[in-house]
Amino acid sequence: MHIPDGFLSPLVALSLYVISLIVVAYSGRKYFKEGGDIYYLSVMAAGIFAAQMLNWPIPGGTSAHLVGGALAGILLGPFGGCLAMFMNLLVQCILMGDGGITALGANTFNMAIVDVFLGYLIYRLVMRMSGGKKFLAGFFAGWLAIAAAAVVCGVEIGLSPQFGYPLSVTVPVMGTWHLLLGLVEGVATGFIVSRVEVIGK
Amino acid sequence: MRRSYLLILILVLVSPIFGVIGAEMVGYHEPLDVAAELIGLGESEPIWTGIFPDYTVPGVPDVIGYVISGFVGVGVLLLPALLRGRRD
Known about the structure:
The complex is a heterodimer of chains A (about 200) and B (about 90).
Chain A: H1 10-33, H2 38-52, E1 56-58, E2 62-64, H3 69-96, H4 104-130, H5 134-158, H6 167-193
Antiparallel strand pairs in A: 1-2
Chain B: H1 2-26, H2 31-38, H3 62-84
Helix pairs in contact in B: 1-3
């Protein structure tokens, strides 16, 4: 889901840089004001970075890896999760060229904001509705939030004439593909949150 | 939290099995890169390729380069935790 350079129109890329910068800065303020410890951000970001290196090859020339935004949001709370995901994306972009430097704003928006905040909300909602079933809540959070992030990603590249395909193609392709792949993300998220102590609230 | 470090270590060590060996078996590329090639965007060079382009170290076999770049990435991200430790 990491968008490379050259996919986004300057307007889309720049707008998402601005929005993401504001949300990340606000998350930083909130997280540390509420007594958040940088230790957890550091360990979570490193863990997500390592987990994302496990690409599962899918015959046909593509692959999928966990994204982990919902997981980070559930374990550290949405603000800490956003910061940890952003740290990960920053290192991936600058050190590995994974995700274009012009697309860092968009990638942050999709994976550090949509995936994290929506995943957190879905988790809380399902927890309340199911009477505290952690695996179930983590499953739906991981699954649906990644599908939503993929739809948003489809909107971004569909709105950019550079990519050459309209929204009517990019959104269904990204959405349905990740609704399927997201099941793995859901199971992994559910499995981990049902076994790890939640730090954030 | 020791267990987190151990888990991260194991993840990086096994990652080439998926990220390099498995990837070569199925001719893997990042999905969005495949899309770019299909529509001819592939020729436009990325603006910034990174210090370890696509998790490789120039002149080093891919499997080892993948692990090295993985440790560097993890190391940078873990710096605050290693330097400051856990409060409380």
